[in-house]
Every structure is written in structure tokens, then in C-alpha cells.
Amino acid sequence: MSFFAFFLARADVLVYFSIFIALFIYWINGIRKSTAKMPPGPMPLPVIGNLNLLDLEKPHESLMQLSEKYGEIFTLHFGPKKMVILAGYKIIKEALVTRADDFGERAIDPIFEAAFNGHGVLFSNGEQWKSMRRFMLATLRDFGMGKKSVEARIQDELISLIESFRSHNGKPFDAHMLINTAVSNVICSIIFGKRFEYDDPTFEKLIKMLDENTKLLGTPKVLLYNYYPFLGSLLGLHKKVVQNTKEIRSFISQFLMNRRLHFDANDITGYIDAYLLKQEQETTKAQTYFNEENLLGSALDLFGAGTETTSTTIRWGILLMMKYPEIQKKIQEEIKMNIKPGQLPTAEDRKKMPYTDAVIHEIQRFGNIVPLNAPHSTPTDVYLRGYLIPKGTEVIPFLTSVLYDKTQWKTPYDFNPNHFLDENGKFVRHDAFMPFSVGRRACAGESLAKMELFLFFTGLLQAFTFSPPPGVSREDLSLKPDIGLTLVPTPYMTCAKPNY
To answer: Which one of 12, 70, 108, 183 has the largest count of C-beta atoms within 10 Å of its C-beta?
Structure first.
């Protein structure tokens, strides 16, 4: 949907004219701060900047087209806001890895400021971010991230998920919420020290609100709120996202109050308990970041990030197996060769299953779950490739341009597991594979996500063969993503035929 189509459909002429005047003044103030030394880009129009060049429902596609014209570094005006786009593997690696300190700050868009208010890990900066991230990583490791203990949690959840799939008796069903619930239960067992039943109404509501927020955050109206926050507030474009976030935060807060009442330093069962223990240890310090707001914020970060991207990747995986049954069959043959009947897959099995590993990596690459990455910003004036990026400029390390980089992948727009296999069928790593981003701001739960993807995906293909519903051919299956902050599959039905 174009900027003009969205706006004209929602404003009469008088209101539109008034808004136009206000935005023009706002744009003039912003454009005066421009500098000719910044990276080149298309000439901005008054008020709207370069929004006329963007499809607000699929901005990643527009940015790919613009990168073809303007290269690996260019400036775009999103309304009055200037952003620098980094496109391609080489420049993103240089910025986020080689020059991590220069691009290590998080740009916090207005919608996330309204929802998170700078607390937690994902949407914070400075010493607070360092303290919270260090604690989060240490605590996740303590609770088994990447180790046998968390493997057992995933396997237990896999059993429940298989039982839920099996209950449909091979008939068509939408696996969306079941997969979201199973994946979320893994991170919930780490946050809260407990899992939830699939039919728990409170848990079901939390998952649905998180799912709704993911969709809303990628819609044109929320994007416009980020570009024109004063106007977005007047039109209430952000209210539903903020309300859903408050309700999820309220649930965590109620759990926290209960745990605080019954807290036992000798019985630490989850992230919240570990945080409460840390608070006790910090009581003698004059200054600490371990307050309740950062606890709620970091727990919310874990809940959201630990649910959405992994579950979406698994949903893409099932869709792609229906689309390419020959790939599904080859995975199942590898499973039979390496995992005994009746045994669940283990993390160690990955080493013996290069084809399955390659397919999972290709699902992540092709699915392109977080196309725009989370935005970064420059803590000081920075020069990159001879261009000045002023302090505080929002920088988009455009992940689609890496995962679909023509210089790095033989067939970037095709689903091709051979991207991760050598001529002997052995798995090969690829430097341009960065779905979790890279550098200081890379996903804190990457090792957990990798283990979940292998165990869930392999376990589901061990138990079932997935096919489209009767009357639907594999050619009918669309691989076009739906609108959202993450690229999710267009809703689909699947049939899970038991293999045993």
C-alpha cells in the first residue's frame, strides 16, 4: 500500500490540508539539518521525504530495488526522519563486526519508546544495556541454553506438540497457534520456571496478543506513527500495540509479585527468580540497574523474542516441506538412518545429519524472518566509505540484502538447500548467513533458537509427513509473506499424516 493511498483513504480534504501544512513545517526543520557529506540517495519531497518510493506493506522489497540503484550505502528520508541504509554482506559485516563500537547503539523508534520506555535489553543503550545483557546471557547459560538441560525442556514440549498434531487425525488444520504455544513454552520455562498447558486461557490470550503485536508493528499505520509520532498520537495509531504490551507486562508483574512473596534464594527456578536474587545482592550499591522496570522489560524481551522468530521459522519450514515434498522425503530418509524408531532427536544428531541441517539453514535464509533487522544508531559522528553519518542517525543494517545477496548465494531467490552443502554432501557454513544479525547486538538467544529449530523441525518430520489439504496442489501454495514486523507465511492449512 502506498503512502498516498493509505493517507487519502483516511482523511477528508480539510483535515488532510491541515496535516499537510503541519508536516511541511516539521519537514523544513528536519531538512535544514541535512548535510551534503551524508551518503547519497533519492531527492526527498516536502513533508513525505522518500515515502513515495516505498511500499509500506513490503518495505524490504522497496529497499532491495533502491539498493540496486544506490548501492551498499545510501540515505533515505522516511518523512522528516533521515536514515542510512546499509545493503549487502560486506558493508554490514564491516559496520556491525569490524566497527561494532561505531554502530553499537540501538535506535529506538517511537512505538517501542511508547511500549518499553527504554527498559530491558532490546530497546536500551549505554551502561544499562551492558548490565542487562550481561546478566541475561549469564542467566540463560545457567539455565542450560545450548546444554542438555534445556534440550530436555524442548524434547518435552516436542512430545506435547506431536500429540496435538496427532489429534487432528491427518485432517487439515492451522498449526500456527500450536507451534507458537510450544515454542513459547520453552522460553516460559526459563523465564517463569514453568510451562503452561495449551488450553490455558490466560496463556492463550498472551500468545494471541504477542501475535497481534507482531502483525500490527509491520502495518502502514504503525510505520507512519514512527515517522510522524506527533500525528500518530493524534490519530491513535499506536494504541493497540501499547495496550497489548501493557497487558503482557501486567501478567509478568503479577507473577513477579507472587514470586517475591514466596522467594527462596535456595530455590531459583527461572530468570525472574535469578533477577530477584541479583536485586538482593545489589541492595548495598549506591546505583544499580536491577530495578523492577528492567526486570519487566527484560522478561518481556525474552518472551517476545523467544517466541516469535523461532515459531515463524518452523511455520515456514512446514509450508516449504509441503511445497517441496522431495526435500521432505530426503530429510525423512536421513532421519531413519540416524535416529532409532521411538527415540526423540537430540542436539548431537545434528552433526550426523548434514542435509537436515542445510535445509533448516536454508529455511532461515529464504524465510528472511527479520528483513530490516532492528535499527542501530551512531553514538558519535562516524565516517563509513568516505561518507559522514552524524551522531544519532538511525542506521538500518538491511538483512534481506545479505540473505539475498547475489554475490554470496548462487540462487538467492530460490529455496535451495545446496547453498549449505559441498559437492560431497557435507554441511558448510556461510559467512553471509546472519538471520540473528551479528556483532554486539546479535540475538542473545541464538544458541537456544538453533537447538529449538533442529529438535522441533526434525521431530515433527520424524513423526509426520506434511501435505496440502485435499484439492490444494503444491503449486497453489503461496510463498509470499504476510504483513508484519517479521515476515510470516500467508495463513495456510496443513495435513499431518503420521509416519508411525
So the answer is: 183
- Contacts with 456 (C-beta within 8 Å, 6 or more apart), sequence order: 154, 157, 158, 161, 179, 182, 183, 310, 314
Rounded to 5 degrees, φ, ψ at 395 are -120, 130
* Distance of alpha carbon 380 from the chain centroid: 27
Q: First CA to last CA across the chain, in angstroms?
A: 46
Binned at pLDDT 50, 70 and 90, residue 231 comes out as: confident
Angle between helices 148-166 and 446-463 (to 10 degrees): 40
Q: Yes or no: say if 418 and 351 are a contact pair by the CB < 8 Å rule.
A: no
Which residues, including other chains, have CB under 8 Å from residue 13's CB and lie 6 or more apart? none
What beta strand segments (E) does 319-413 contain?
376-377, 382-384, 387-389, 394-398
Cα separations in angstroms, 192 against 149, 162, 181, 244, 253? 16, 24, 15, 20, 11
What is the per-residue pLDDT across 126-185, written as a single tens digit (0 to 9) for each? 999 999 999 999 999 988 776 778 999 999 999 999 999 999 999 999 999 999 999 999
pLDDT higher than 80, residue 434:
yes
Distance of alpha carbon 181 from alpha carbon 307, whole angstroms: 8
Q: Are strands 81-87 and 394-398 parallel, antiparallel or unpaired?
A: parallel
pLDDT in the model for residue 385: 94
Element (H, E) at 496: strand 495-498
Q: What integer pLDDT is reported at residue 232 of this predicted model?
A: 77
In which element (H, E) is residue 482 found?
Answer: strand 481-482
What type of residue sits at position 485? L
Q: How far is CA 492 from CA 149, 164, 296, 453, in A?
A: 34, 17, 34, 20
Q: Are 155 and 351 in contact (CB under 8 A)?
A: no
HSE (CB half, 13 Å, CA atoms) of 65?
Answer: 9
Please compute Rg for the chain using Cα positions: 23
pLDDT at 22 over 80: no
Mean of the per-residue pLDDT values of the chain: 91
- The torsion angles phi and psi of 285, rounded to 5 degrees, stand at -85, 145
Output the CA–CA distances (angstroms, integers) from residue 290 to 108, 271, 282, 293, 403, in the order listed.
21, 13, 8, 8, 37
The three-state DSSP-derived secondary structure of 21-74 is HHHHHHHHHHHCCCCCCCCCCCCCECCCECHHHCCCCCHHHHHHHHHHHHCCEE
Q: Give the three-class secondary structure for 498.
A: strand
Name the pLDDT band for 492 (thresholds 50, 70, 90): very high
Are 385 and 38 contacting, i.e. CB atoms less than 8 angstroms apart? no
Q: Which pLDDT score, from 0 to 100, does residue 354 have? A: 98
The 10s digit of each residue's pLDDT in 265-306 is 999 999 999 999 999 998 888 889 999 999 999 999 999 999
